[in-house]
Predict the 3D structure of the following.
Amino acid sequence: MEKCIIVAIADNNAIGKDNALLWHISEDLKFFKRTTMGCPVIMGRKTFESIGRPLPKRLNIVVSRGGFNAPEGVEVTSSLEEAYTLAERRHPSVMPASPSAASGYPSTMPGPSDIMSLSPAITLSEAGTSPAPCAFVIGGGQIYAQAMSMADRLIVTHVHTFIEDADTFFPTIDPAVWKVVDRSETLHDEESGYDFEFVEYRRF
Ligand SMILES: NC(=O)c1ccc[n+]([C@@H]2O[C@H](COP(=O)([O-])OP(=O)(O)OC[C@H]3O[C@@H](n4cnc5c(N)ncnc54)[C@H](OP(=O)(O)O)[C@@H]3O)[C@@H](O)[C@H]2O)c1
């Protein structure tokens, strides 16, 4: 199973403030849902608390050093490595044909999402190949920082703004390590006024 990171980043690498997101871009939320649907999602305890509920039809794994009282439908691990192991073990490809409802997966898996289609307007970088199943790290800052060295792929929404007073940042995406394999056209969000684009990176 591939290890993927999905994140929305401002041009100064800001991703959050006061345990909340920095913007509401409905196209990005739809993209996130479409991309992660049916896949394991791994997050830090603070991000889980910021979302406030398990994401439906996805195996929700929260990383915490302890004291986190997991609600129903959420798995807790004490490290990112353990989270990946759990994601791998619980993925339907290694499960019996009828996964239990408690697994967090829908009974019919939609597959590992359509992350190859960043936008209908772009040429697909790997058209014709089946994307591998992904375990998605979905935040926040602490977990992203730890996941970068392990990730195979980054799915990034670049939001073209600077948020100076943010308190959480994404690590620099080193162009010597990551190559762009797909990029959407530049889109515009009326509500926030921001331009944004979806970019997929793969490790060289
Ligand atoms: N822009 C985006 O795409 C995006 C996406 C997601 C989140 N965010 C934002 O990011 C911010 C939250 O990020 P954050 O850095 O404050 O918190 P976080 O990474 O979501 O969670 C941090 C928590 O994860 C646990 N943790 C971290 N490293 C661990 C390890 N090695 N082993 C075990 N547990 C570990 C700890 O939980 P315990 O304290 O329970 O031990 C720690 O307090 C929010 O503002 C959120 O809105 C932005």
Observations:
- The first helix runs from residue 26 to 36.
- The CA atoms of residues 60 and 74 lie 5 Å apart.
- The first strand starts at residue 2 and ends at 10.
- Residues 2-203 form a domain with the Dihydrofolate Reductase, subunit A fold (CATH 3.40.430.10).
